[in-house]
Design a protein that fits this description.
single chain, three-stranded antiparallel sheet, alpha+beta, elongated, 18 helices
Length: 488
C-alpha cells in the first residue's frame, strides 16, 4: 500500500471519528494482531496520557475501530493491520510529547501481562499466537531478547518445521523498525523467506551477506543454521504453504508483503444463519431483518420513523438513519444553524440489532461491557443519536430540544421535545406479527411485550429477514391506501 494512500486513509479516519479514536488506534497498533477483547482491555487501561491527563476515548470507539478499515479480519475475531499503517500510527504516538517512547514501553509491558495465560494454554495454536505477541512486546522493551528468540525460531523452523518459516519471517519483517539494530537478523529473515518461496538465487544472495564459514552465521549473539550450498543450487523446491490456525479458521500466509487469505468452508446460506449464531461484532449482519422490522413498525403505527439521511450528515454502514418526525425536524434545525456536516455513529437500533449486542455482552464478546435488553435501550425510541465532536455540537443540539447524556455516555443525545411517542412496544409487536406471518404453526402472542417466548423467537430469526414481509390482504390494502393518498 502506497504511503500517500495510507496517509489519506488515516487522515480520513481522524476526520470521521476524531482525535480520541485515532489515539486508541495508535495504542492498538502495537500488538501484532488484535482481538475485540484485547482492544477493549487497551481501551480500559489507557484512558490517560503519560502525564495523567484524561484523553476521553468513548467505549464505542472499540467497535468503531474494528470496522473502520484500518484492520482486516484474518481469522475468527482476529484482526491484523497493514505494516505501513501500523508503523505510521506508532510513529504518531511516539512523536506526541504526551505519550512518546514511554507509552510504547507501557503498552509493551501491558501486552506481556495480557498474553501470559495464553502462553500457558493447552492449545498449541493459541500458544504460537501468544509467542508472536511476546516477540512484538519484547522488540520494544528488550530488543536483543526478541531478536535472539526470533533468530532461534527461524533456525528451528528451517531444521524441523519449514512450514513455519514464512510466518516467523513475516513477524521479523513487521518488527523491522524496533529491531533495526539487528541487521543480520533482518537479512536472515529475508533469506529464509526467499528460501521458503523457492527463490534460491535471492536466498543465496542474502545468506552470503552473513555467512562466515560453513552453514552457520552469528545473529543476535547466537549461532544459527543456514541452508547448505547444495540446497541453494539444486532445482527449486515447491513454495511452502504456511497455515496459521486461529480458533478453527485457517489463515494462509502468502509473502510478498504479507497477505492473509481465509481458507474456510463455503459460506452459509444467510437464510440458515440465526440471530443467536452471530459472534462477529458488527450489527450490520442483521441488516436484512432490521429493514423488515422498520418497515413493519411503520405499518403498526404509521410514520413512527422517518429517514434523515437527506440531512447534512455523515454515517457509517451500520447506522440506521431513522428518527421520529419531531426529532428529525429538531436535528435538521441544529445542523442548519451550525452549517457543517454532523457525523452520526448510531441512531435508531432495531430490537434485532440490540439483541446482538445483548448477546455479546452476556457472553463477554467484542469488548462490550454492558448492553440493554431489547427494547430498553434509548436507541429503540427513535429519539437517540450518538455523534462525533459532541462538545462542539452540544450547544446547537440542546438549543433545539436535544439533551446531552453527560459524562456517563459523552457521545449520546436524546430528543426531549414535544409530540413524541413511545414506540418500543410497537417495535416488539412488529416483530411478533412478522414471526407469526412466517411461522403459522409456532405462533406467539402479539402483545408488544419482549417476554421469554419473544426473545427465543427473535434469536431464532434469520439474519437476512423472513420470506414473507406482509400477508396478501395487507399488501393489497396498503396499495389501495397509497392510491387513495395519491388522489387526495
Amino acid at each position: 500500500m502506497k504511503t500517500d494512500t495510507i496517509q489519506r486513509q488515516i487522515k480520513s479516519f481522524k476526520k470521521r471519528f476524531g482525535e480520541a479514536h485515532l489515539l486508541l488506534a495508535c495504542h492498538a497498533a502495537l500488538p501484532l494482531a488484535i482481538t475485540p477483547d484485547l482492544l477493549y482491555c487497551i481501551w480500559t487501561n489507557f484512558q490517560q496520557d503519560v502525564k495523567g491527563r484524561g484523553i476521553d476515548i468513548p467505549w464505542v470507539a472499540v467497535t468503531d475501530l474494528l470496522f473502520s478499515g484500518l484492520w482486516e479480519e484474518v481469522g475468527l475475531e482476529i484482526y491484523e493491520m497493514d505494516a505501513t499503517i501500523r508503523e505510521m500510527l506508532l510513529n504518531y504516538l511516539k512523536d506526541n510529547h504526551n505519550f512518546g517512547e514511554q507509552r510504547i514501553k507501557e503498552l509493551s509491558e501491558f501486552l506481556l501481562v495480557y498474553i501470559q495465560p495464553q502462553l500457558e494454554s493447552d492449545d498449541p495454536d493459541i500458544q504460537e499466537f501468544a509467542k508472536a505477541q511476546r516477540w512484538t512486546a519484547q522488540a520494544y522493551l528488550r530488543p536483543k531478547s526478541s531478536a535472539k528468540g526470533l533468530g532461534l525460531a527461524l533456525s528451528r523452523a528451517y531444521q524441523h518445521d519449514r512450514d513455519d518459516l514464512i510466518r516467523i519471517a513475516a513477524v521479523v519483517e513487521t518488527l523491522s523498525e524496533p529491531l533495526s539494530k539487528f541487521k543480520k537478523l533482518l537479512i536472515y529473515g529475508r533469506g529464509m523467506t526467499r528460501f521458503a518461496r523457492g527463490d534460491l538465487e535471492g536466498a543465496k544472495a542474502e545468506f552470503d551477506k552473513i555467512r562466515r564459514w560453513g552453514n552457520h552465521a552469528h545473529v543476535a549473539g547466537v549461532r544459527l543454521l543456514l541452508p547448505k550450498h547444495q540446497e541453494l543450487t539444486r532445482e527449486k523446491p515447491k513454495s511452502f504453504r504456511v497455515y496459521w490456525r486461529t480458533l478453527g479458521i485457517l489463515s494462509l500466509v502468502l509473502v510478498g508483503g504479507v497477505t492473509w487469505v481465509q481458507v474456510q468452508s463455503p459460506p452459509q446460506d444467510p437464510s440458515s444463519i440465526k440471530v443467536k449464531d452471530i459472534t462477529t461484532c458488527s450489527t450490520r449482519v442483521v441488516n436484512g431483518l432490521s429493514q423488515q422490522l422498520i418497515n413493519r413498525l411503520n405499518v403498526v403505527r404509521s410514520k413512527s420513523l422517518v429517514n434523515f439521511e437527506n440531512l447534512n450528515v455523515d454515517m457509517g454502514l451500520a447506522v440506521w438513519p431513522y428518527l421520529q418526525p419531531p426529532a428529525k425536524k429538531a436535528l435538521q434545525e441544529a445542523i442548519d444553524e451550525r452549517d457543517i456536516p454532523l457525523v452520526v455513529n448510531s441512531a435508531y437500533r432495531t430490537i434485532a440489532a440490540q439483541l446482538v449486542l445483548w448477546n455479546h455482552a452476556r457472553n463477554e464478546r467484542c469488548g462490550i461491557p454492558i448492553a440493554y435488553r431489547p427494547p430498553e435501550s434509548n436507541h429503540q425510541t427513535g429519539l437517540a443519536i450518538d455523534i462525533r465532536d459532541y462538545q462542539d455540537w452540544r450547544p446547537f443540539l440542546e438549543k433545539h430540544g436535544w439533551q446531552w447524556d453527560g459524562l456517563k455516555d459523552r457521545v449520546h443525545f436524546d430528543y426531549v421535545g414535544a409530540n413524541t411517542i413511545d414506540i418500543r412496544a410497537d417495535s416488539v409487536l412488529a416483530f411478533q406479527q412478522l414471526w407469526n406471518l412466517n411461522n403459522p404453526t409456532d405462533r406467539i402472542e402479539e402483545n408488544g411485550m419482549f417476554d421469554a417466548e419473544t426473545e427465543l423467537r427473535l434469536n431464532n430469526s434469520p439474519i437476512d429477514g423472513f420470506p414473507k414481509e406482509a400477508s396478501l390482504w395487507f399488501t393489497l390494502f396498503k396499495g389501495l391506501m397509497s392510491l387513495i393518498s395519491g388522489r387526495s
